[in-house]
């Protein structure tokens, strides 16, 4: 059995209500205390924050890559028409390769920034969150990418090797839903980033003249603090719970929530985001997952 968290309608309402109340309280606190919270927590020398910044967005890429792997396996071994099997296999392979490359590009970009900061005796966490681009040789990037892809493929295919045709069909449906969930979360997050145009904490000058509260829409100006992209990506870790068995589902669900919170806190610590940025992003992404999880229960048998 795979799919979403099995909650009764009453429990879903309770969870939704409690989450909404917590969100409102935290955003109210952030409205009045964003600057104070950032000034208290910021530590540009944080190694933990730097690690989270460098590698923390893996769910958004690996969910796509996982879905590509499932498409490949379904095309090869599942209940798939021959005319569809070829394009589906190639498309799944391309998606998995591309998203693996995107993730490698990202963590190598942040890693290079951190190494450069250390070399220049600059605070290690001071990486540009909007354009983390690596300075490694192209051959190095390709080698890391291919090694990462091969290891990831071997692990996923080992997991899928004994799945029945019925299970593969179910996984394929969940993969489509998961891909749509990640895509929608990404589009909403990126659109709001551009629209809000909020300065990041580390972009503020000494007088904090550029600071605006989280309710202020500044328009497109190149600044992208609100909402947090890392927090969105990390919260999507919850989606992995859709792919595991019943006895593991709750652990993956809770683990996804915890991971989203940890990454959110790390973003405030390294000065990349205000408390309101990560709070709004976490609950907005959770809402998108909640909606898509509900659709899964309606549209996918045994979800």
Automatic annotation (TrEMBL):
Residue span(s) of domain Phosphatidic acid phosphatase type 2/haloperoxidase: 175-293
Transmembrane segments: 15-38, 58-76, 136-160, 172-192, 228-245, 252-272, 278-296
Keywords: Membrane, Transmembrane, Transmembrane helix
Protein name: Phosphatidic acid phosphatase type 2/haloperoxidase domain-containing protein
Gene source species: Limosilactobacillus mucosae LM1
Lineage start: Bacteria, Bacillati, Bacillota, Bacilli, Lactobacillales
